[in-house]
Amino acid sequence: MGIEREGGWLAAFYFIYFCALGAFMPYWGPWLHDQGQTPLAIGILTAAVQFSKVLAPNLWGWLAHFWGSRPIVMLGTLLTAAGFLALEFSAGNFIAILLITLAFSFFWAATLPLVDATTMDWAQRRSASYGRIRLWGSLGFIALSLGMGVLISIWGMQAFLPGILLFLVLAWWVSRHLPYVSQVPSSTQARPRMTPVLRDLRLWFFLLAGLLEQASHGVYYAFYSIYAEAHGLSSTSVGLLWGFAVLCEVAFFWWGDRFIRRLGIPLVFTASFVLTALRWGVIAWWPGLLWIILVQSLHAASYAAFHLAAIHWIAERFPGALRARGMALYASMVYGLGGGIGALAAGWSWAQWGGQWTFAAAGLLAFFASVFLIKGLQASPALEKKTI
Questions:
Q1: What rounded mean pLDDT belongs to the chain?
Q2: Residue 1 DSSP symbol
Q3: 8-state DSSP, 305
Q4: Mean pLDDT, to the nearest integer, of 220-225?
């Protein structure tokens, strides 16, 4: 399989996977509402999706250590699709939806960390760019977050589940062709151990910093549209702002490896945290249209720069057969636990303090997280400036 074809399969997987995610995230709540669920039930079902990312990736990463990534990614995409098919028969029953949601989220959480590990392995072998493969996921998210809205406007919420199901089946088909590298030791080889890595406190400072940085996004994902409309923006303008933010994310993924090569992982990391704090602070205190447009460009820092630097950091710290487990640990702690805590805290803070102070608190949280980041990056030989 040539390098272009291998890269093409990886790009296709990211595009299709994030097409499904782009259809799911904006319309999961409206679909649940259409099924007659109460606001409390919607909150519980949304949190179930987030918190499934805490334990599931670690279990799947551990299994990949023994079985390899290929069977788990294929199984995960296929059984996630089966979960969305099962939702068609839930008949609006809360318990049924909850159990199905826990099931499909458990399998969905298996795929992305393992594919990230596969992509990073491939990029290092081929002297290629992880970011230029990953950006196809962002493009897929844009395509279906907009496209699903069109489908729903034509056919109603009955288009929601079949649309996601289609892309998950496609993701399963594409997963059969990814350039996996077997990192499973033979029966005569000693298996590498996680214990020495886990004993390094710098790892836990890094994970805590990432958890807090992603938790600061909770108010953005849950309430940004409401906040912007409350300050005079139309629904169309808000939608364009979301799209603009993701386009800035795509741009950084395209050029980001060059930034990391020239500036080093610690500097890119630190800048992403400081700019994240700046972003939330500007939204809190200067919510006018001009400033909101300008700070939306900082999504390139708060998400893309953070994620790209983190993937390189994890890849260096968890080499070879440990990489899938390292990616799983990162996904579960940062996006699973951090995302879940951030969503719950944002809802409480919004009710108690209102939007302005909640965004201001998010800015302080991101800035505070940089203290732990500095501790995590101290004297780490794996993070020296390097050629990618």
A1: 84
A2: -
A3: I
A4: 78
Q: What is the mean predicted confidence (pLDDT) over 300-329? A: 86
Comparing CA positions, the residue from 137, 220, 323 lying closest to residue 145 is: 137
Within 10 A of 54 (CB to CB), how many other CB atoms are there?
A: 19
C-alpha 64/C-alpha 76 separation (Å) is 12
| 15: CB partners within 8 A, 6+ apart | 136, 137, 139, 140, 143
CB 272 within 8 A of CB 305: yes
Residue that is written with structure tokens 């499973």 in the block: 184
pLDDT confidence of residue 184? 52
Cβ(304)–Cβ(135) below 8 Å: no
Q: Tens digits of per-residue pLDDT, 68-119?
A: 889 999 999 999 999 999 999 998 899 999 999 999 999 998 888 889 889 9
Q: What CA–CA distance (Å, rounded) separates 220 from 346?
A: 9
CA-based nearest residue to 181, from 27, 82, 69, 292: 69
Average pLDDT estimate for 196-208 = 86
Q: Which residues of 132-142 are buried (b: 16+ CB within 10 A; e: fewer)?
A: bbbbbbbbbbb
Q: Provide the CA 255 distance to its chain's centre, in angstroms.
A: 19
Place of tokens 């879940």: 340
Q: Which of 5, 78, 46, 18 is closest to 307 using CA atoms?
A: 18
Which residue, 109, 99, 98, is CA-closest to 50?
A: 109
Task: Report the pLDDT value the prediction gives residue 3, as an integer from 0 to 100.
Answer: 65
Q: How far, in Å, CA of 31 to CA of 149, rounded?
A: 12
Q: How many CA atoms lie within 13 A of 144 on its CB side?
A: 29
Quick one: which of 134, 77, 137 has its CA closest to 315? 134
Token pair for 45: 């079902």
How many angstroms separate the CA atoms of 276 and 273, rounded? 5
pLDDT (0 to 100) of residue 385: 44
* Measured distance CA(359)–CA(343) in Å, rounded: 13
What domains sit in the chain, N to C, each tagged with a CATH number? Answer: 1-179 (1.20.1250.20), 194-388 (1.20.1250.20)
